[in-house]
Amino acid sequence: MTAATKSYTAPLIAPPMKVIEEWIDYNGHMNMAFYNTVFDKAVDALFMDVGISEDYVTKELASVFTAEIHVTYAQELSLHDPIKVTCQLLDFDAKRIHMFLEMYHAKEGYLAATMEQIGIHVSMESRRSAVMPDWVLAELQALKEAHKDLPIKPQVGRVIGIPKKSAGATSA
Predict the structure, then answer these.
(1) How many Å is the Cα radius of gyration of the chain?
(2) Alpha-carbon separation of residue 56 from 42, 44, 61, 119, 167 (angstroms)
(3) How far apart are the first and last CA of the chain?
(4) pLDDT of residue 3
(5) For residue 114, with 0-12 CB atoms within 10 Å meaning exposed, 13-18 middle and 19 or more buried, which class applies?
(6) Which of 10, 101, 105, 169 is most buried, by the most CB atoms less than 10 A from its CB?
(7) Contact between residue 75 and residue 7 where contact means Cβ atoms under 8 Å apart
């Protein structure tokens, strides 16, 4: 593995965004699909930081595909609300990247949503998982080192389901 070429902030901060009219649904807030859009743009920014950009796809004939995501919604975002997304690298191996993102109202500071994601490095020729180049692994190692002291948030590793009540409890 080669040495990383840059140093990283903890956490990474994605470029600022703002809720646009097309993202508002009939409930008067940002529709859940567009939380995914915002998180996707933030992941793209994280990947660009470590060198996985459109040029990477062309030159390396590889990319990172999303294998799984878990999104939690904490508080609404509305039209024109400014958005700040932080990105934390939790772990990686030769073919996978595990990250956690938090979406905040950039002015008021409240947590709006979180996303945990596993990305798989894929050969664009075979469309199968493939080992990342040493230089990408070195960048991810530097990013992981920068993020090692960040707290692991309670949403990481959450399982979806309806908790079972104890015997004798009544349903809601």
Answers:
(1) 18
(2) 17, 12, 7, 16, 56
(3) 56
(4) 72
(5) buried
(6) 101
(7) no
Q: In angstroms, rounded to a whole number, what is the distance separating the alpha carbons of residues 85 and 122?
A: 25
**Location of structure tokens 């990474």:** 12
Nearest residue to 97 via CA among 74, 73, 122: 122
4-63 pLDDT, tens digit per residue, is 678 899 999 999 999 999 999 999 999 999 999 999 999 999 999 999 999 999 999 999
CB 66 within 8 A of CB 117: yes
Question: Minimal CA–CA distance to 78: which of 45, 40, 35?
Answer: 35
Strand partners, 65: 120
Length of the chain: 172
DSSP conformation class of 158: -
Q: Are 125 and 57 in contact (CB under 8 A)?
A: no
Residue whose entry in the numeric block shows the structure tokens 């932080």: 86
Position of tokens 């080992």? 131
Q: What are the respective helix, strand and coil percentages of the chain, to the nearest 5?
A: 25, 30, 45
